[in-house]
Amino acid sequence: MKMTVKTAAAVFGIAAFLLSAFTGCGGKKTVSDTSSSGNDAAAQAESTEIKPDAISTVGPANGTKLELWTFADLHCQHYAEMLGKWNAEHPDKQIQITFTTYPYADMHNKLIMATQTGQGAPDLVDVEISQFPNFTLGTVPFVEMDKYIEPYKNNVVTSRLDIYSANGKRYGIPFHVGATVMYYDDELLSKYGIDYRTIETWDDFEKAGLKLKEASGGTVHMTGVDTGGTDWLWLSMAEHNQDWTDANGHADIRISGVSDMIKMQQRWVSEGIAYPTPGGQIDTEAGYATVGDEKVAAFPKALWYMSRFLNYIPDQKGKWAIAPCPVYKKGQPRSVGIGGTGTVVSKQSKHQELAAEFLVYAKLSLEGEKLIWEVLGFDPVNTDMWDEKDLTHNPNNKYVAYFRTNPFDVLNEIKSEIKGIKATHISSAINEQINLNVLNNCLEQNADVDAELQAAQDEIDLEQ
Question: The whole model's pTM is what?
Fold first, then answer.
């Protein structure tokens, strides 16, 4: 893998910007910024043993011993329960796994060093989506997973498998689809005579926003616009069937899918139906307060945001509905997958076959997907589970009980419309420019969108 120590330091120096675009699995993450000391930071990381937050070993002592790294302890709980099921079903392939949970940046940094030196990598490791491109420069240090995915390929959302690929080969297995949906405060909107079910296009959304502004006396905004996150832009690119990087990883952010959304949001802000979200985006403490205080009536976010409602805004139970996102023109795709963690098998593993077989069982089998939904609250990649009515419509399920509409009804409606945006080596530079400059200048200062995108493109080109 062609990555220098200097590159590793740069990777984690911009981690804070990436999180706003790729948050998902494992809840909110805190990243240590190692950029201040440049090469010294990476050298220190290389020479100092990183201490984990937690270590646990699960499985029989006589089982094949595997090691798994993650940055989210909740993931360990899932793997541990699936390991028990695996061992019960495979008496001739018993496994014992030692789980190690590290802080987010530390784990990825440690993995980079292990792949550079060719030693020290675990058998299995969770790689967050924004970090995945850092391991695809040159020879990919992970086992190709296509043959292991084969039994499930007709039943999974392939766009979510494709984001963990390089050179046409898949390497990572995701936890969820991360399908973007629209969250509507149905109780609040109904109070002002607005039916969200009539909103199909962004024009409809804007008209509803103007009605809400007038009816509420301007006390409620239709939505908040992000100045520190790219979710709205990803959705817009998906609706335009675009991506800001091509098959070769070359970036062009001046595409209509980007400019159309920012220009539309500028208009919303000027009309008073939207305002820059406190905290930069809705998935922050300030963002949760915005929702809880009913300052906004709607916003797009991935289905994994359901857990944020339950954890941070529990008193809003029974008020909110989930629906497909509006589009520019009817017939366009209405969703995009956002966030995620791709679990990989290291080529350094002495038990690659067994590790890969367990991995797809844990994350793609119907048993695994049931657990991912019930415990983690994620939208499973295996669409077979979407039709398991006893699970998806269980009134005792905390996510089903919270919302006025059923998330799987929405998923099945948009099943063929969930697009994907690639994460590549240039994604960090894109997000840095978008989150630091373009969105703030355009939505806070009303700067010219085309000029800002061109200026950002010029900076991105220096990295290509």
Answer: 0.85
